[in-house]
Amino acid sequence: MIPYGRQDITPEDIAAVEAVLHSDFLTQGPAVPGFEKALTAYCGAARGVAVCNATAALHMACLALGLGPGDRLWTSPNTFVASANCGLYCGAEVDFVDTDPLTYNMSVEALEAKLVQAAASNSLPKVVIPVHFAGQSCEMREIHALGQKYGFRIIEDASHAVGGRYLGEAVGNCRYSDITIFSFHPVKIITTGEGGMALTNDPALADHMERLRSHGITRDPAQMESASDGPWHYQQIELGYNFRITDMQAALGHSQLQRLDDYVARRHAIAARYDAALAGLPLSTPHQHPDSRSALHLYPIRLHATSQRRQVFEGLRAAGIGVNVHYIPVHTQPHYRRLGFRDGDFPEAENYYAGAISLPMFPTLTPVQQDEVIGVLKRLLG
Ligand SMILES: *Cc1c(COP(=O)(O)O)cnc(C)c1O
Fold it and tell me: pTM for this one?
């Protein structure tokens, strides 16, 4: 089976993890801040808080921005459920903004129209989470301008987009957002097994997220609410969680980061090959926005005849090609239907979903494997 995504682990990665296993710290040691510093330097952000997964990073980011009951969070329906669930964890109301027909990212026009309506009915969101679908940045300059106008905070869900660029700068620099989060799940661009990170340029948000990562506890006298009893003292300032990542994982991530640019370059070479081979077939290949250099986490094709999707998907699977579909619109999930969402609420996301298939896309995909994928797809559509 050729999977749709796959990690790449080198002898250097294994040596980095092994070195931690022989060291004094398996968790809360130096590898975690080492990884945080390296990735924030790569992205050009001030601070990074590494955690056990990106879902925890989203949850923690929402809490740090003060999201709670009575507040609203808006995100894209074309995403993994975690981008919306983080709002529910905080007791906030979740709603969605329909997608752009070309990039499948949150549509700036749809966002603006929804904001105009929400302003009129006094129901503006506190937090908006644009999701950089397939690794391509949303139009963050425009979304940020709307944030200034309507007073919402922004968390970029860049789970797909580490190594990507927007307007010539690294995704993750938080120029147009309060917080950016990355995922290091093995199907993503670089991996720590499970893992995530929240990046920010705001030191108060970073301090707050560091506390939330570890039970709401601080050992910094400056953050304590009363005088410290002494050097042993810690204070629990609020209700936090155990969202920590281990040093073994951080060492793996730091080692993987050395190859991030090579990985993204490989993904672009694979995409260029797919683009050329699939031209002329009754499908759309991923559109690349001129402001963005995608990290190309995914290569989602969109069949023009949605009635063919099941047969093409099953044919690819039967031929040993582990295709997948990204994403089932979140608002159509049973949990969200129970909250009142219906088919037809976000037609662009639903129309895209009806024809979507993600082809195998990972840096170690060989030309022979890729030709097999292309050959089977051509046969099924021929
Ligand atoms: C993978 C993913 C997440 C969750 O990441 P985990 O590290 O698995 O928790 C969140 N949002 C998007 C868009 C993702 O693809």
Answer: 0.98
